[in-house]
From TrEMBL:
This is M48 family metallopeptidase. The keyword rRNA-binding does not apply. It comes from Aquamicrobium zhengzhouense. Residues 38-235 form the Peptidase M48 domain. Keywords: Hydrolase, Metal-binding, Metalloprotease, Protease, Zinc. It comes from the Bacteria.
Amino acid sequence: MRAISAFSRASRQLLLAILSLAFILPAHAQRGISLVRDAEIEALVAEYARPILEAAGLSRSGIEIILVNDNSFNAFVAGRRIFINTGALLMAESPNEIIGVLAHEAGHIAGGHQQRLRDQLARAQTMAILSTILGAGAMVAGAQSGSDGLGRSGTGLLMGGSELARRTLLSYQRTEEATADRSAITYLERTGQSAKGMLKTFERLGRAMSLAGVRVDPYQISHPTPQERIATLETLARQSRHFERKDPPALQLRHDLMRAKIAAYTQGHTAAKRMFRDNPRSLPALYADAIATFTSGSARGAISKIDAIVKANPNNPYFHEMRGEILMKAGRPVEAAQAFARAKSLDKTRSGLIQIGYGQALLATGRPENVRKAVGELQAGLSRTKDFSAGYRYLAQAHAQLGNVGDAELATAEGHFYSGKYNDARLFAARAQQKLPKGSPSWLRAQDIINFKVPKR
């Protein structure tokens, strides 16, 4: 019995160890990933990524970039998605640093590293299972023969097999990380961009580890150490004629505005002021101040500040969008709708988020003609931002106010569906079908939700 018990514990510990090493995503999932949706930040990061994805041959691969609400400096890939933490965007002082991060993650996708990692994981599991079976057999034989030495050797086989599988997988991951680094250098060179920001990121990580007093065994980690990465890449990076190239001033300004927004929303007034203490009257500093005033509960004070910013920069869609959000909080939906309408007209990316904000403001006015218009704006915005579940709540409210109960039920079903609440989605979809014309597009969409099967992980 001791042998079977040891077998179970060893197998369980190995599997947990392998899974934790194989993917970054599950570690986040255990505490719950909080995603961020913001038209301004999404547009800027997409602009950073576009030439890199083209250089990597991924421009037509449907790559999505997802913002994660996390203060740490991190990015990772899962499927066709690149996840990047707001902490990385906040800490990166230049666009080039984030572009380097995106280039590295694109290297993982273009290189097919995820599928090969799964294959390597399967081999590691097989190796561990074989050693576990041999170890368990030796322990059983030792128990039957009364040989303590044979039993101890069985335990050694169990632990040794697990350790060998783990180290093999770690070695493989370090190789793939180094490959992604080299791919990133290639993409940056093809797009005429510097790798200096990438090296700066590794230097930052190295300083953080040193300040934390971390002593790293290079054979116990899944990434090369920052010092090793710098040593491998610096010569290659400096050979590029683009190494000293600076980010365009206009792009740097947008980057600073993004950092100002993140700092104000996630860390408040003090952090925002500290970030721009050397230039407290700069546009990013003023933007951070207006947002921090808004998030601290003073909508009235924030309105005067954002009004001054809009007056000086009338063609920035995101300043108008922020003004609309503040006016909504202040209980002035008519003016908010006007601000969102202006943002929508200026937004060259045609962000669904801005259009949903416009629809929300129209709905909040309570005027029947605006509510009808809100339905169109919300539907158009959601067609481009299908997974923004809050938008379906506003759409359901608009349909309900107009007496379109079936459409309201369907919108509620859609919101649950894109939130991953599939049972609730089926319930509301079934209720919607009872009120919708059979065979109509809305009825068929409800049927799709009812028939949807959750894909196996």
